Amino acid sequence: NGEPLQILHYRPGGEYLPHHDYFDPLDSGSAEHLRVGGQRIATVVVYLDDVAAGGATTFPTLSLSVRPRRGSAVYFEYFNRSGDVDPRCLHAGAPVQAGEKWIATKWLRQSAYRQAA
Description:
With about 120 residues, the protein is mainly beta.
């Protein structure tokens, strides 16, 4: 139960500020997203190349940093069996300092994903 694979490309200076991949249950805009596959429950980030400098995936709340290395991946869940999301999965893409960063991202859902018509 996943969304289509998304390829992302970051050049020097490119970054992604801290965020959650789940849809905030308290945000009224989440209802439409939840209708087409339920809550996002996990993320897989696959690193498609080595980055000369910077570009780590960071988890500030957990004091964790994952360096992008070609062929490796990071997997994290944020939805438990009780139906609660876990805000500790806050993450970011640190700025690329040199080179380029290419990743493939896959978001997994509670149920079969179907894009809105």
